[in-house]
Amino acid sequence: MDPAGSVRGRFAPSPSGNIHIGNALAALMAWLQIRSRNGKLVLRMEDIDTARCRPEYARHIVEDLRWLGLDWDEGPDVGGPYGPYVQSERLKLYEAALDRLKAGGRLYPCYCSRHDILAAAAAPHGLASEGPVYPGTCRHLSPEEAGRRSLSKTPSLRFAVPSGEISFTDGVAGNRRINAAAGGDFIVRRADGIFSYQLAVVVDDALMGITDVLRGADLLDSTPRQLMLYEALGWKPPRFAHVPLLMDRDGRRLAKRHGGITLAELREAGVAPQTVTGWLAWAAGLLPEPLQVSPDDLIQSFRLERISRDDNVVTPDMLGRLHPSLGQQEK
Ligand code: GLU
Ligand code: ZN
Prior knowledge:
This protein is of the alpha/beta class. The chain contains 12 helices and 11 strands.
C-alpha cells in the first residue's frame, strides 16, 4: 500500500455540459485508481474556455458525481490546500508559467488566422483533438515583421516544439513514442487572451501535486505536448493512463452522439446509481456482468491492468442493460 496521500489523482471536467456516461467511466476509473492506493483525489473545474462553460453545469457535475457515489478530498465545494480548484480563478498562475516559457525563448507570437492555417498548402490533419497541424509560418518572422503585424492584430502565442522524439509509458495504452514535431507548434494563449487547455492542465496538475492522471483516450495524443511543457517548465510529469472511450457501432464516440446519455437522464429515468456503476465497470472490462455495485465494492479488485485496452463498442443490447428504453431507441 502506498503511504497515505502520496498518490494524488484528479477529475478535471469541463463544465460545458452535463456528465455523460463516457465522462462517468473515466471518473469512476480515476476514483478507483486513487482509492485503491490510499491516495487523495482532487476535483478541478476546467472552465478556462469561458464562452463554453457555465456555472450551473459545474453544479450539476458535482451533484451527478456524488449521486454516482464518488467523492473527493479537495475541490471547489470542499476546499483544500492547493486551491483555488476552478481554472478561471487561477489565471495568475498560468500567466506566471507563460512568462517563464517566454523568458526561456520557448514561445513566439503567431498572427495567422484559422483560415490561413487551413489554407496552408497540404496542411495534414493534426492531432485528433487539436485540428490541423500548424505549419510554423510565424516561427521565423523577423522582429521587424512581427512588430509591424502586431500593429493590426493581437497574436496568439505558440510553443516552439523541439525536434526529437517523445516517449512515455501509458498505464493502459502501453509504450508510446511519437515525433515531437508531428502535431506542430501549439497554442498556449489564444489571441483573445484565453490560456490553452494544454498550458492550464500542466500548470494545475503540477502545482496541485498530481502524481497520476487517468482520463479518456481522447487526450492520449495531447500527452506529448503536455510532457514538452513539463520539460520546458522544469517540472516532473505525472504518470498517465488513458482509458478507452465508449463508442457506438459506427465508431463514433458515444459522447458526441446527438444527445449523448447523461447521468442526469439516467437518474430521471429512475435508474439506480449502483446499476450505472456496475454497467460502467462491466463496459470497462472490470466485471463479467453488469451487476449492481457501488464504487466501494470495486476497490478491492481494481487493477489498472484489468481495464480493457480497446475501444469499448457499446451495442444497443448493452445500452438495454442500462435502461430498457435505451436499447430500443438504438435499434
Ligand atoms: N477538462 C478536460 C475535459 O473535460 C479533461 C482534461 C484532462 O483530464 O486532462 O475533457
Ligand atoms: Zn502564424
